[in-house]
Automatic annotation (TrEMBL):
Any one GO MF annotation of this record: urocanate hydratase activity
Biased composition, class Polar residues, residue ranges: 1-11
Name of the protein in its database record: Urocanate hydratase
Cellular localization per UniProt: Cytoplasm
Catalytic activity: 4-imidazolone-5-propanoate = trans-urocanate + H2O
Gene from which the chain derives: hutU
Domain Urocanase N-terminal: 84-210
């Protein structure tokens, strides 16, 4: 069968031959044993229900072995024989162009060039899954190939519940991931529900089919690094940025450091992912010896070199060695996946990568002790540097939260509501007040033709739009506009594409709508092929996350999730092609609710209507919430939005004179 026929077949009518376990692939670590015997039986029943009873006797021992060996039933036998990557949209079978766009994005998320653990259907973050098993993938792709624009596919945590009668203005796919009852949202609950095959951790853009490789965070990281140096009033040139994590999203950090123009040292314990990032030219050099690393950094500082250095080892060793050598770190952070601390998101110092993987599966309580001990040591080393003037910020993967739970010295001496930690979240000090409050967030698009020339044309269109908008932009957002123009002008030379022909830039509602409108016109004129719009959930409106996206909300509403829920509901009836809502993305199961969307532009008047309706809401919903929290930048932004759109009427806050409280 050819590619199209394999997609249309779905789950094969005859069992394919078992596939060998490919050791050269970067695999997910073994998950700890958490099911009792009765629950293991249930997990196997749940897996077998995808297949006709005549296959159960042959599949049962195989699935049982997977469950015992890996802690999950992945159904490796059913991995497709075709190569996994984002093909041009014209190569997908189907009746709906919108459905084909979703197939393209699913395959992009699982591409070997993009996915962290492709055989386990995990895109990034150690546990950010597109599907729980290969049967779900096969069945979903089959449904999408059959779908018309009068149907909607309903996805329950990777499971395709089915195609339902719908209408053309409804989303073609509605996705939920991990939406468990709140009292069952602890890390071990995820382990159990995922092992049972009934829920999954969709991260942000993994389970919503909108991941575009590390580029998706390069821009935000570049802005963060640039503004961190601005905060300390120092040029990035010759400045030293120390952090950790090269897998998934964190792989963007050394590339962002290069674009910002500083020296970046990024530690990573996984040799495979370190090698991949080096081959992809996302990091310049790999070092395994700390003395050599110190000498290399000193040389780079002397000549003010822009360079990114990967240290294959534990970041705690870097912080401690640089302290001993009195090597000045200007800005520091951490982007290990501490939303997933006990299952591969963070590796303790002093234990090898291989031994850690074994311990987390076979001795989970001991592994937890080692992680928490390492976090205490990690924080102590950071504190030594900050006492010398290093600016440290939490990069939002629950580093400070897990440090505090481990008893590390990270709590503020005089905590206030929203400022519990001695170090800020990068959203609190940088992204929140400088970008999100003004409506600037990670707008992204994918050229569905797969043609690099289409991507270059869209870059040119976006740059023209931003330069025109900047002429009349108020002073409050001039810096944001200029940063984005600089970014898009350098996008081609920085070789940011991994997987699909995709791009990201930070834009506000006006910028997103104008750019999308120009794209749609170019499609109509035959200048480019269809374009898929999207964004990271990490945005102005998409996510309620008290220690990250909404960490600069100080009215007490940080722990509410009304904004994210309203965002996805509003997007669904304003024209999104697909919508998603997740529990857990970015900072951990039970710690956040986040929503996203995808939208196909096909050059039609219908697409023009949808983009204007949806993109306006998608941003201004969040600005409204931020303005009600008394964030001054957001008040400015929503007033400006109301002036531009007479039908928008938002409740504004009144400020209370602080002196009134001193009179009591």
């Amino acid at each position: 069968m050819n590619f199209q026929q394999q997609i249309q077949q779905g789950i094969p009518t005859e069992l394919p031959q078992p596939k060998p376990y490919e050791t050269q692939i970067n695999h997910a670590p073994k998950r700890k044993e958490i099911l009792n015997e009765e629950e293991k039986k249930l997990a196997l029943k749940n897996a077998l229900r995808y297949f006709e009873p005549k296959f159960h006797a042959e599949l049962l021992p195989e699935f049982k072995e997977e469950l015992e060996k890996y802690g999950r039933v992945y159904m490796y036998r059913f991995r497709p024989d075709y190569e996994m990557y984002a093909r041009p949209i014209s190569e997908y079978p189907g009746k709906s162009l919108k459905a084909k766009s979703i197939m393209l994005m699913i395959q992009n998320n699982l591409s070997y060039a993009v996915a962290q653990h492709p055989h386990e259907l995990i895109t990034y973050g150690g546990n950010g899954a597109v599907f729980q098993n290969w049967a779900q993938y096969l069945l979903t792709m089959k449904y999408l190939s059959e779908m018309t624009d009068e149907q909607t596919l309903v996805m329950y945590s990777g499971h395709p519940m089915g195609l339902f009668p719908s209408h053309k203005d409804a989303p073609r796919v509605v996705v939920t991931n991990g939406m468990v009852i709140p009292n069952y949202s602890k890390p071990d609950d995820w382990e159990k529900f995922n092992a049972l095959g009934v829920s999954q951790y969709g991260q942000m853009t993994a389970g919503s089919y909108m991941y575009i490789g590390p580029q998706g965070i390069v821009h935000g990281t570049t802005i963060t690094v640039l503004n961190a140096f601005r905060k300390i009033k120092k040029s990035p040139k010759g400045g030293l940025f120390v952090t950790s994590g090269l897998g998934g999203m964190s792989g963007a950090q050394p590339k962002a450091g290069n674009i910002a123009g500083c020296i970046t040292v990024c530690a990573e314990v996984n040799p495979k992912i370190t090698k991949i990032r080096h081959e992809q030219k996302w990091v310049d050099e790999i070092h395994e010896n700390l003395d050599e690393l110190v000498a290399r950094v000193r040389k780079a500082q002397e000549i003010e070199e822009t360079v990114s250095l990967a240290y294959l080892g534990n970041v705690v060793e870097v912080w401690e060695k640089f302290d001993q050598e009195n090597l000045k770190i200007d800005i520091g952070s951490d982007q290990t996946s501490l939303h997933n601390p006990w299952a591969g998101g963070y590796y303790p110092v002093g234990i090898s990568f291989e031994d850690s993987n074994k311990m987390m599966a076979e001795q989970p309580e001991l592994f937890k002790e080692k992680v928490q001990k390492s976090l205490r040591r990690h924080a102590a080393a950071i504190n030594k540097h900050t006492s010398k003037g290093t600016y440290f910020f939490d990069y939002g993967n629950a580093f400070l939260l897990e440090c505090s739970r481990a008893g590390a010295d990270v709590l503020a001496e005089n905590p206030t509501l929203g400022r519990e930690f001695k170090f800020p979240s990068y959203v609190q000090d940088i992204m929140g007040p400088m970008c999100f409050d003004y409506g600037f967030g990670p707008f992204r698009w994918v050229c569905a033709s797969g043609k690099p020339e289409d991507l270059q044309k869209t870059d040119e269109i976006a740059c023209e739009v931003l330069e025109e908008l900047m002429k009349n932009s108020p002073g409050e957002i001039q810096q944001q506009m200029q940063d984005n123009i600089t970014w898009i002008k350098g996008a081609q030379e920085n070789k940011l594409v991994v997987g699909s022909q995709a791009r990201i830039l930070y834009a506000d509602a006006e910028g997103r709508m104008k750019i999308a409108e120009k794209f749609n016109q170019a499609i109509k004129n035959g200048e480019i092929g269809p374009v898929i719009l999207g964004r990271d959930h990490h945005d102005v409106s998409g996510t309620d996350s008290p220690y990250r996206e909404t960490s600069n909300i100080y009215d007490g509403s940080r722990f509410t999730a009304d904004m994210a829920i309203h965002n996805v509901i509003g997007d669904s009836f304003r024209g999104a092609t697909w919508v998603s809502i997740h529990n857990g993305g970015g900072v951990g199961w039970g710690e956040v609710i986040n929503g996203g969307f995808g939208m196909l532009l096909d050059g039609s008047e219908d697409a023009d209507r949808r983009l204007k309706s949806m993109l306006f809401w998608d941003v201004n919903n969040g600005i409204s919430r931020r303005s009600w929290a008394r964030n001054e930048g957001a008040i400015f932004a929503i007033k400006r939005a109301m002036e531009a759109e007479p039908n928008l009427k938002v409740t504004l806050p009144n400020f209370v004179d602080e002196d009134l409280f001193s009179l009591e």
